[in-house]
Amino acid sequence: MGDRNFRSILTGSFSTPCADNPTVAMVEAAYRHAGLDARYINCDVKAEHLAQAVAGAVAMEWVGFNCSLPHKVAVIEYLDEVADSARIIGAVNCVSIRDGRLVGDNTDGKGFLASLKGVTDPSGRKVVVLGAGGAARAIAVELGLAGAAHLTIVNRDVARAENVAALVRDNTPCAAEAMAWTGPVAVPEGADILINATSIGLGDGNALPPVNLDTLRSGLVVADVIPNPPMTHLLRTAKARGCTVLDGLGMLVNQGVIGVELWLGKKLDAGVMQRTLQEIFEVPA
């Protein structure tokens, strides 16, 4: 009896709303598979309560937590240190607590990059990114740091696209330009990778970003950050045209793997996480 430990390692997530976040199921399945007595607690934290939530995590000796909307920028003021890529991106979605010190990182772009490397190396490649929101910003920075040759950021508000392009140019060796999204986007002939980093298609298997489908060609890698449904309309169409496709499940899985490794120094089984999400989203085996 004296050697038994009834105290679980505590991790979790702060966001609002939070009820539709499947990360808790994915991470806890991997904890169980690894034989870890650890919990991932999905917390609905309103913006006005973020400071108390962070202080509570420290007080209860959590080892780390994720931050999702609307906390990715606001949490920075409560941190003792911010990793370089998160500082460039200007947002934090993963916080590690080490000896009472809070260290912020951003695993959005890292998770996508890890997934992308499963199908192609972005080094030296020309990439078109649809969107200029938080996901696009994180992905663009990580692609630049990973050695991509050129990024084209496409957005309806071209000023927001230029902000992301400037961020890449100023902080990485990668060239980057903005393009106004005024109609169906024609993927340039020399592009190697097309990424939908918008929310178009989330929860709607028929929604399709305005893309000139005739410019989707064999050899092009087409990726989507949407995890549900994983096989979006864009990906189904691209696959039918001979493109290599990459769904959003891998990004979500790799975010979990990277986050837990930051917290615990252990690499969890990505396959367990992937299968858990596939069951949740009813993806055929």
TrEMBL record:
The organism's superkingdom is given as: Bacteria
Which biological process terms from the Gene Ontology are attached to this UniProt entry?
amino acid biosynthetic process; aromatic amino acid family biosynthetic process; chorismate biosynthetic process; shikimate metabolic process
UniProt keyword annotation of Lipid metabolism present: no
Domain Quinate/shikimate 5-dehydrogenase/glutamyl-tRNA reductase: start-end pairs:
122-198
SUPFAM superfamilies, per database record: Aminoacid dehydrogenase-like, N-terminal domain, NAD(P)-binding Rossmann-fold domains
Q: Which part of the chain is the Shikimate dehydrogenase substrate binding N-terminal domain?
A: 24-95
Can you state the subunit structure given in the record?
Homodimer.
The protein depicted here goes by the name Shikimate dehydrogenase (NADP(+))
Q: What is the protein's species of origin?
A: Komagataeibacter melaceti
